[in-house]
Amino acid sequence: MIPGLGGEGAFWNAAALHMPEGLELILMDHRGTGGSDRPDGEYSIPRIAQDARNLLDALDIASAVVIGHSTGGMVAQTLVTSVPDRVRALVLSGTWARVDTRFRRMFEAREALLRDGGAISHQKLTQALGYPASWIEANRTALDAELLAADERLQPRAIHLARLQMLCRYDVYEALHGISKPTLVIGAPDDGLIPFSASRDLASSIPGARLEALEGGHFFPRTRAGDYARLIVDFLQDLPL
User: Fold this and answer.
1) Please, what sign has the CA dihedral across residues 115, 116, 121, 126?
2) What are the Cα distances from residue 236, in Å, to 60, 88, 156, 162, 239?
């Protein structure tokens, strides 16, 4: 399970609670985040995809169902188009097929806000764009704690700026038609970061992909954790043995 731009595997904790017992879950921290190393040098989607491949190697896993949300969805697309034998099936949620003008302006603005306005302002915007208003009100205490931790969490600042920059430099749109793995695409009609049209575009670009809609803002694996897990479990049950 590959998380989004925040990069921390703990993003999946709520959804993981709703997964069936006995299902082995691997929650990955991106390089530069969480418990992973923060090396200098280039940050890119292909580099994170290579890290995911290395993780499978280290765990002696030949292939896996790869679940990616947002940035993690682009990592998953890169993994399946570069080493398809390592991917049994795909779940792509809250993610995109290609970098268009809206996407570029959104993430260039977020980069500028982090650089010039600081981590707390950046995190406030992330929350406002990422969660439904009602969820923000109901979870304000926890979200306030995220704001207090934002400055420390988004260090070193140069790494997190590089992680934002990498999003506008890369997609695998031209290779999507070659994906032959069973694929579930999930998008939120009320997503303020990645519009639902991006999920439709992605699903229509992958042969045989199933498209599901689940409201709950961009972070619907957290806000609708049970429903999100059920969509995945239903998809897994339909996979060939």
Assistant:
1) negative
2) 21, 10, 38, 35, 5
Q: Is the dihedral of CA 62, 67, 72, 78 positive or negative?
A: positive
End-to-end CA distance of the chain: 21
- Give the mean pLDDT of the chain: 96
Q: 164's torsion region: left (phi>0), alpha (psi -120 to 50) or beta?
A: alpha
Q: What would the two tokens of residue 57 be? A: 């190697």
- The C-alpha atoms of residue 49 and residue 72 are separated, in whole angstroms, by 9
Helix (H, G, I), strand (E, B) or coil at 210: strand
The CA-based angle 210-212-216, given to 5 degrees, is: 155
- Alpha helices for 99-210 (secondary structure H): 101-117, 119-130, 133-138, 140-153, 157-167, 196-205
pLDDT digits (tens, 9 = 90+) for 41-73: 889 999 999 999 999 999 999 999 999 999 999
Helix H or strand E segment including 55: helix 45-58
Q: What is the pLDDT of residue 241?
A: 62
Tokens 């890290």 label which residue? 51
Contact 112, 161 (CB under 8 A): no
Q: Please state the φ and ψ torsions of residue 42, each to the nearest 5 degrees.
A: -70, 140
The upper half-sphere exposure of residue 213, i.e. CA atoms within 13 Å in the direction of its Cβ, equals 9
* 235 close to 181: Cβ distance less than 8 angstroms: no
Cis peptide before 156 (omega within 30 of 0): yes
